[in-house]
Amino acid sequence: MRAYLAILFLFALVALTSCRGSDVYMGEWKGTDINGDKYTLVFKPKNFSIKKASGDSLNFEYTQNSVKIENSVKTYGITLADGRVYNIYFPIKNDDSKCLMTMENGQPVYTLSRTSYLSQEEIYGLVK
After folding, report:
1. How many CA atoms lie within 13 A of 107 on its CB side?
2. What is the pTM of this model?
3. Are the beta carbons of 90 and 98 closer than 8 angstroms?
4. What is the dihedral sign for C-alpha 107, 64, 75, 114?
5. How far is CA 48 from CA 2, 20, 79, 81, 124, in A?
6. Secondary structure of residue 109 in the 3-state scheme
7. 19-70: per-residue pLDDT in tens?
8. Strand, coil or helix: what is 4?
9. Whose CA, among 11, 36, 61, 91, lies 20 to 30 Å from 51?
10. Domains recognised in the chain with CATH numbers
């Protein structure tokens, strides 16, 4: 019985920690939406914020629901507390400093970079 409880506890611990976001996209990002408006996004393990240029800030709770790595290109799926699903897509092999945040259907929402504001064209221009 003791072994059964230990296994159950271990499984619960793994399940709880696996829902937190990946270290790959944790931290501060400079974001540009499809209209060219600029934002600052900050990802923490279970929530993220979007700060507009006007200073207004929105906060969202999320869980990470998937990880896909194919040919060194990474995609992380996140689900917001309200049920919306987004992907954080790193289209440039072995470069975790530039990515796209897309809706579940692949439509881009934000272009993200650690160092500068980039357009979608600039991100896709780097993919080769």
Report:
1. 4
2. 0.79
3. yes
4. positive
5. 39, 11, 12, 11, 25
6. strand
7. 566 889 999 999 999 999 999 999 999 999 999 988 899 999 999 999 999 9
8. helix
9. 91
10. 2-126 (2.40.128)
